[in-house]
Design goal:
With about 280 residues, this protein is of the alpha/beta class. It has a single domain, classed as Spore Coat Polysaccharide Biosynthesis Protein SpsA, Chain A. Helices cover about 40% and strands about 20% of the residues. The protein has eleven helices and ten strands. Strands 3-2-1-4-8-6-9-7 form an eight-stranded mixed beta sheet, sandwiched between helices. Helix 2 links the parallel strand 2 and strand 3. The radius of gyration is 18 Å and the shape is globular. This is Glycosyltransferase family 2 protein.
């Protein structure tokens, strides 16, 4: 029996997490478990998480960041498939079934993701007319019909929703925790997957709603987010020897395929990040 382990990090915003979880139970038609990793919430999030069926809760006493939290969840997971899912998302009918179908359509596919809102342009759609549950579900249904089975190979995938086989972890390891608290760990994971001979895939027929930066709302938090993003851009630049400044990488972008082309030999000591 196929089991998908959904790894979800939380840090406050109970209502946001509840909306995401409600959509999972409403719209998921394959066996799943949820591994919550709570990064030191100060509201009632941890209390709520313990009421969710099919769930295991890992409570951190400090905010360990996205990569470390995901690695904790991965180590606790039981499924043959791992799905990293942000808590500021709303999933839609048949989402996970179609992602699994996309992943298994080609054994060379290492990671798949959906299209969404409030994400980088490679996976972003711009014609959603409203943000109510009814609007989201209706738009997802329209895309399912219009883009059935369609998708494309991106340079990288965005970490708000990524599905992969557990066997990928045996090949390249987990997320790189140097990218604390978040940003560029998904870029890094995508590059290592491709360096190991895998392709990436965006499923055009699968839409989920993404609110975006749920833990970084407000002007002060936005400034903090930007500074942390630039710091991780520098770490990313140092790791992959990119001939751009951190500012250029973070604000103007870079070409992941150029990095993959340079990494033409898979080296475990360079491309594997062992799970702690």
């Amino acid at each position: 029996m196929v089991l998908v382990s959904i790894i979800m990090l939380t840090h406050n915003k109970t209502d946001m997490t509840r909306r995401c979880v409600d959509s999972i139970f409403r719209h998921t038609d394959v066996p799943f478990e949820i591994i919550f990793v709570d990064n030191a919430s100060t509201d009632d999030t941890a209390v709520y998480l313990k009421t969710v069926p099919k769930a295991r809760v890992i409570e951190n006493k400090e905010n360990r960041g996205f990569a470390a939290g995901c690695n904790q969840g991965i180590k606790a997971a039981s499924g043959d498939y791992i799905l990293l899912l942000n808590n500021d998302t709303v999933v839609t009918a048949g989402w996970l079934c179609r992602l699994l179908k996309s992943l298994n359509a080609d054994p060379r596919r290492g990671i798949v993701g959906p299209v969404s809102t409030n994400v980088a342009p490679i996976q972003c759609v711009y014609d959603l007319k409203g943000t109510s549950i009814e609007d989201i579900d209706s738009y997802a249904h329209e895309r399912k019909l219009a883009f059935a089975g369609q998708g494309f190979f991106p340079h990288k995938l965005i970490g708000f929703c990524m599905l992969f086989r557990r066997s990928l972890l045996d090949l390249i390891g987990g997320l790189d925790e140097r990218f604390y608290p978040g940003n560029y760990e998904d870029d890094d994971f995508s590059i290592r997957a491709r360096a190991a001979g895998n392709t990436l895939w965006v499923a055009q027929d699968t839409f989920i709603y993404h609110e975006g930066q749920g833990s970084f709302s407000g002007t002060a938090r936005t400034r903090e987010y930007r500074l942390q993003s630039l710091e991780n851009a520098q770490r990313f630049r140092d790791k992959w020897n990119i001939g751009l400044s951190a500012f250029e990488i973070d604000l103007r972008g870079y070409n992941p395929s150029e990095i993959v082309a340079k990494e033409n030999v898979f080296l475990p000591e360079r491309h594997v990040v062992p799970l702690p």
